[in-house]
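--- STAGE predict ---
source: upstream dedup step, 1 unique chain passed
mode: sequence only
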Amino acid sequence: MDYVSAAGLGTALAMDAMAVSITCGMNGRNKKTAFLTAFLFGAFQMAMPVLGWSIGKVGSDMIAAFDNTAAFVILVFLGVKMLIDSKRQDNIIGVKVKDIIILAVATSIDALASGITLPVSVKADTPLYMLEAVLIIGTITFILSLSGYIIGNRFKNAKPVCAGVAGGIMLILIGVKTLFC
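--- STAGE serialize ---
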């Protein structure tokens, strides 16, 4: 297996999760939520390539047809929701577990599509190599998501409405980037 390529792929796949984690950190309140966010993002980034790998070439066209659009819709919806919620509340918006799960799914849809290519792109052509590859992807995502959450949490003392607006705009921009890139 090509460990350097697996680490590069893991880092590339984790970028959206890290950016969204910054938003979650701006609106989060405690270490438990930080670890839950990082864990869920890492877990979904591990599970989706396995699912994509198991679907294989049969479903590759189906996944490719909706991955960017689905991520765009989910991220823009949550971004708009965050913008609306920031105007309604005077304190920092709490991060709900269901929102974290939805964000984890949205940021890992590209990992689903990449799972199809793992046997070729990182030479994960056996179940053991596949396990190693997804562990690398999940670990990198966990570390970058936790770091992003901590970075975002440093800005939570900003005016709460500003944090909600900034977070909402960030989610919308990530969604737009996902649609066009």
